[in-house]
Amino acid sequence: MINFILxxxxxxxxxxxxxxxxxxxxxxxxPGGPFTSERPLPxxxxxxxxxxxxLNQPLWRQIVTYIWGIVTEFDFGPSFQYKDxxxxxxxxxxxxxxxTYGFLSFIVAVAVGVTLGVVAAIRQNTLIDYLAxxxxxxxQVLPNFVMAPILVLTFTLWLxxxxxxxxxxxxxxxLILPVIALSTSYMASxxxxxxxxxxxxxxxxxxxxxxxxxxxxxxxxxxxxxxxSLLPVISYLGPTFVAMITGSVVIDVYFSTGGIGQMxxxxxxxxxxxxxxxxxxxxGGLTITFNLIVDILYAWIDPKIRL
Amino acid sequence: MLLxxxxxxxxxxxxxEMDEIKGxxxxxxxxxxxxxxxAAMVSTFILIGIVIFSFVGPYLAAWSNEEIDWSVxxxxxxxxxxxxxxxxxxxxxxxxxxxFARVVQGTQISLMVGVVGALIAVLVGTTYGxxxxxxxxxxxxxxxxxxxxxxxxxxxxxxILLLVVFGRSVFMLFVGVGLISWLDMSRIVRGQTLxxxxxxxxxxxxxxxxxxxxxxxxxxxxxxxGVVAVFATQLVPLMILTESFISFLxxxxxxxxxxxxxxxxxxxxTMQYGTLWQLLFPLAFFIVSLFCFFFIGDGLRDxxxxxxx
Amino acid sequence: MKHFAFGLTVSFTxxxxxxTAFAAGNHPETGEALxxxxxxxxxVLDEHSxxxxxxxxxxxxxxxxxxxxxxxxxxxxxxNLVPGVATDYEVSEGNDEYIFNLRADAKWSNGDPVTAHDFxxxxxxxxxxxxxxxxxxxxxxxxxxxxxxxxxxxxxPSELGVEAVDDLTLxxxxxxxxxxxxxxxxxxxxxxSPKKVIEEHGAEWTKPENIVSNGAYMxxxxxxxxxxxRERNPMYWDNDNTIIDKTVALVINDENTALARxxxxxxxxxxxxxxxxxxxxxxxxxxxxxxxxxCSYYYTYNLSDSGPEAFKDVxxxxxxxxxxxxxxxxxNVLQGGQFPAYTFTPGATAGFxxxxxxxxxxxxxxxxxxxxxxxxxxxxGPGGEKLEFDMLYNTSEAHQQIATVMSQMxxxxxxxxxxxxxxxxxxxxxxxxxxxxxxxxxxWCGDYNEASTFLDLVDSGSGYNDGKYxxxxxxxxxxxxxxxxxxxxxxxxxxEIMSAEMPVIPIYHYTGSYMMSEDLRxxxxxxxxxxxxxxxxxxxxx
Lengths: 307, 309, 542
Known about the structure:
Low-confidence stretches of chain C: 7-21
Distance between the termini of chain C: 50 Å
Strand content of chain B: under 5%
Strand content of chain C: 15-25%
Number of helices of chain C: 17
Largest sheet of chain C: 7 strands, mixed
Number of strands of chain B: 0
Radius of gyration of chain C: 25 Å
Order of helices and strands of chain B: HHHHHHHHHHHHH
Low-confidence stretches of chain B: none
Largest interface: A-C, 56 and 50 residues
Shape of chain B: elongated
Oligomer: heterotrimer
């Protein structure tokens, strides 16, 4: 176990380094720089600005300085676009926001998705089952950039129940719409996976044995069938969580939550190199961590797997 | 917008338990079982219908996909609604362009992105996985470490970067989307190759001095086809969804060409202004097609799975 | 020395009314009943770049800075100069030395007096290479002595030609006579900044907990990418006449969502999405407003060596420009009351006489006929070569609509094949700046209300001249206009040359079209630069 974790961590370092280098190279090969503007700056002014941000150094040197700053002081540099702030500021503000609604969406998606899947499996081939399968596929394919404006129009404009956006430090009424918009499609996927694996487990020999022994159905499902049928769900969770965080740009755009997704897209478009790097590294780290957690969880639930 | 690889893994495990697949009977069996799956069959027909529509559509349309109906421009809300009389069967978009023609053309692009993207991923993934699994040892561990590293990359971020750097084009879409989805494929294929390569028929081929290359392509890959086919049908809708997200970011195909994602995005933007048809028609095509792909994918998996027999 | 004093009457009424202020809840001048809550909430598209007056470079940031800080001069609702921190100014005979007299009651939000030294500090800071201000060139543009050398790092910032004669007198020395200099000090770059605070907090000084400002408002909250809040500054010298208590800027990326939230009552002001003005105007006649802006929308030909051969032929350039039916674009696509453009400079520009350019007077049918003729003469179209080119624009729904309509007009009328090519903003700028295009979109908003801010773009030496148009006559007229007492004849002449040579295709002149709460009053619709100040707005009771 310890060995496994160490091995994974050992891979994490080259992964992050590679990510930094790839991002740096891609970033710099993109046409236009952070200070390209509609009104081109006079060369002297541009030179002053580039000197301030160290952009006049050779690329390798910038990379080394950058990594050194992170390793020694955990300093990701100043934002080129938001000149009042550093990347640490930007992330410290946006990441908790994304994490909050991302985590809530995750919980909702798993809780509702698993319940729906289990119910559909138990009532296989009934109306409930068809309904659950149908809506979950529908929800899975309805893009959230369609869902988000529908939610705003319905709950803000027509019903007037909820604010159409903003964050306000994460008050509940500001959270509801983003969480619905973000969780629905993943909830649907989880429901489908749960249903199919539950069906498989319910048809397996040990459940048949349990039934033959006359154990009540409820107990069979909760006590025996649930745990093994969650295995495939768990392997799905790591990527889900990461995809939720990275896919949060739609939520940020429509609900003006001020999260990290919109920041990344913005920084990529405006060539805010340092913010772009910072967010990419954060996401890389998050992806690695989550995959690790899921693997450990998986091993814990499924005794067949040895790490 | 995520792939559930569990089904495929399960299937590949079940398939690997069998001895060498007797090509014809497996596929013939599968075909029969697939035919009995009503949802999958209906989906297949609908999908064929949509494909035909995308090719025949241009001949049915009264307008081209880029032509502006000047009499509608500026009064889309009043005059742009679907109508038989002026030839705009699906109504017009915000610029007075015929939505029917645009949906037809968008269908072509989106289906192509889905199919070609999936194909690239499958080709690369299968070859990569089969090579790694077949040769094993150091080659295998290096190749799989690379996959481990790539899988830990925040894919969406890299994709956005790529599109920003290289500009938008359908080709970049394929590359971008295909870039990540082959990783899962290669892992699954490698796993199955590991079991297959110890089977007698492979050892026999090796003993006869058949070249590695030939063994991989003649003996190993054909035995992987079931898994590959199922995986591919699951990839197609994923590709289409990814394309729609990219269109949302404004990084999709170049005007005047369009895609489902671009059309849906435009329709969603004008939803509150009383031109709902701009959203509903492309969205209907999008959702129905994805439904079909899901059902076909499920049907194919069930049909190929020897365990359910 | 000539002496300029402003708005004596205004200050006088302000003084007398100050005592009674809003006890009765009525507006001091109009007597209108005021609303109970005076909170103004508006939408901005993107997060602002900075609220540091010397660093800020974007429009939404400047709006905030104008509320937080006050410069020597302000603008009124019509764009005229009114006193800010300076009560009046004197100018030397040669127009190259200005003396500003500062009011004694101006204070920073921490209670310190605002002095001429604060301005000296701020202006030196703007020029200082160490500050790396993206607007440092503005100091050079203002022609302040030694500005250029300081920016180039050849002289220390202390050498800048600005001096605090005493606490309340600021003297500026210019390298050349600049009759419009006082207009330039309404720009954010010239606003004072608090030396003590900057030295204490460094780059962190603009955070709400640190910032000290001298304007009518103080920054009290800033959640990046979500909101920024500015509230009444009790130390502001004219605080008694300020009605709006609090202004909130909400970042909302999607304009349609913003409109939905406006309709739901969450906002007092938002932009109207393209094409929605007429229906919103019909539905909310008192809320949808459109007014002229100092901006031009155009397409520029690449006339450099890398440009296509066809565009070197003036007949082709004219034909393409003539065949665009601007009324369709303005009335059927944009539908926001924009003005069809036949000249590059908007007609709303102060002191600009719109010349009678020949094609403006024709009907569209006549223009089309002329265009076909010109194309045939040039050897393109039916019987000749087929004209094909790429038209470049940056990714945006509205630009795409206009480009689509233009290309269809050309295709149908002239048989010209224009391929649309949209690029993401920075790539677009880079491509256009490197003359790597054939025809490219452009838009220009005036930096100040004078025709030269537009026409400088076609100066062959201008860094903004992406089409590389060059005409000695134009260059000469522009150079003369710089120092001329009445340059408007020059500007008219340049526009005439441009319409004959057609280096750019003017498409339309902008309007600002907004949804604004019915009871929001005093929005400066006549200020074509749209320099608005929260302190001048108020909500009437309804």
